[in-house]
Amino acid sequence: MYRDLDFDDDELIDELRDLGYNIDDYSLTDPEFRDLDFEGYISDGADIILDVPYVPTDEKIVNAMLDLAEVTSEDVLYDLGCGDGRIVVAAALERNTRGVGIDVDPMRITEAIEYAAHTGVEYLATFMEGDLMEADFSDATVVTLYLLDLVNIQLRPRLLDELRPGTRVVSHAFDMGDWKPEQRQSCGSINIYKWIIPAKVAGTWEWTTNDNDTYRVELKQKYQQLSGKAWINGTEAVLKTALIKGDLIELVVSQHNNTRAEGFIMRSVGHELIAVEGERQATPAVRIMKP
Ligand SMILES: C[S@@+](CC[C@H](N)C(=O)[O-])C[C@H]1O[C@@H](n2cnc3c(N)ncnc32)[C@H](O)[C@@H]1O
Asked: Locate the Methyltransferase domain: which residues (predicted)?
């Protein structure tokens, strides 16, 4: 029955309502929605193809997303595909956060601007009509998404390349394929996911300690997963731990499997890995070879 329907987004919702479905309770993850054979959603009244139909996030999930991202007044939040602006407005109202909402549908942008004005947060909330695939969101410290898995995956390289390390990305219902989240949280039957943009640290790094030992590590990186090899004073050693979270890296190296391990915590700053205070590392690690 559903497959016979015509997929104009608002028309579809009206048709489902006429068929007796409580469409207000629907989300993109509901089986009926997910089973539809979409080939692009068309905005009501305008010649716009949407990558994702408009389905607003429930208020409880909006709050859970803001909590999961640990949004504060220090953040700049971007909602890509912002709909009526509810995530940006909630962050502004409840956390004093500056936010930007981008949506390709001008009707949604009008609604979002009105909503921000109505709630008195227009000085914190900016809404722009545009395609999320092309918009500049590089000054975000938090990005929220309620798109679709394939759209997330299409967006993934831009998130990884253009956002600063440490930026949090939170998605309602849809994951990022083989980029595993740092955290997943269930809100009833819906999952929300959080990723932290990792610094790019693949390559060979070298640094010297206070007592003049030279450490070298060769790191491979896939998203936030690090692996590799280590040397101490030119002799192959054991890289016991290699972790990255945002711009912070933890490396633990020992001479052999059963000897005392030395741990280093460094921050990726520009082209160097700088020792976090109190570390035994004397010089910044410099990259002597790219992967
Ligand atoms: C599922 S709704 C989410 C709305 C809002 N973020 C929320 O969580 O309530 C997806 C939104 O993405 C917008 N959208 C779809 N394709 C887009 C594109 N290429 N660029 C920008 N917005 C897009 C739709 O107009 C719709 O408002």
From this structure: 79-163
Tell me the residue type at 271. H
From the CA of 145, give the closest atom in ligand 1.
Answer: 6
Residue 182 pLDDT level (bands cut at 50, 70, 90)? very high
Concatenate the DSSP letters of all residues of 209-238 into one string: BTT--EEEEEEEEETTEEEEEEEETTEEEE
Residue identifier of the C-alpha nearest atom 2 of ligand 1: 54
pTM of the complete model? 0.88
- pLDDT one-digit tens code per residue, 188-243: 999 999 999 999 999 999 999 999 999 999 999 999 999 999 999 999 999 999 99
Question: How many A from CA of 103 to the centre of ligand 1?
Answer: 6
In this structure, the residue with its CA closest to atom 13 of ligand 1 is 81
Architecture of the domain delimited by 59-196: 3-Layer(aba) Sandwich (3.40)
pLDDT of residue 72: 98
All residues at 6 or more sequence positions from 238 whose CB lies less than 8 Å from its CB, including other chains: 230, 253, 254, 255, 256, 257, 261
Residue in this structure with the two tokens 């004093």, named with its chain if needed: 96
Q: How far is CA 223 from CA 80, 115, 161, in A?
A: 21, 37, 11
Q: 């959080």: which residue's tokens?
A: 194
Nearest CA to ligand 1 atom 23: 81
